[in-house]
Amino acid sequence: MSQTIRIGVCGYGNLGRGVEAEIVKNPDMELAAVFTRRKPAGSLKIKADVPVAHTSSAPEWKDKIDVLILCGGSANDLPAQGPEFAGMFNTVDSFDTHAKIPEYLKAVDEAAKAGGRISVISAGWDPGLFSLMRLYMEAVNPDGKTYTFWGRGVSQGHSEAVRGLDGVLDAIQYTIPDESAAGRVRNGETPGLTVREKHTRLCYVAAEEGADKARIEREIKEMPYYFSDYDTTVTFISLEELRRDHGKLTHGGNVIHTAKTGAGNRHLMEFSLKLDSNPEFTASVLLACARAAYRLFEKGERGARTMFDIPPVLLSRAGVSETVQTLL
Amino acid sequence: MSQTIRIGVCGYGNLGRGVEAEIVKNPDMELAAVFTRRKPAGSLKIKADVPVAHTSSAPEWKDKIDVLILCGGSANDLPAQGPEFAGMFNTVDSFDTHAKIPEYLKAVDEAAKAGGRISVISAGWDPGLFSLMRLYMEAVNPDGKTYTFWGRGVSQGHSEAVRGLDGVLDAIQYTIPDESAAGRVRNGETPGLTVREKHTRLCYVAAEEGADKARIEREIKEMPYYFSDYDTTVTFISLEELRRDHGKLTHGGNVIHTAKTGAGNRHLMEFSLKLDSNPEFTASVLLACARAAYRLFEKGERGARTMFDIPPVLLSRAGVSETVQTLL
Question: Is B203 within 8 Å of B235 (Cβ atoms)?
Answer without folding.
Answer: yes
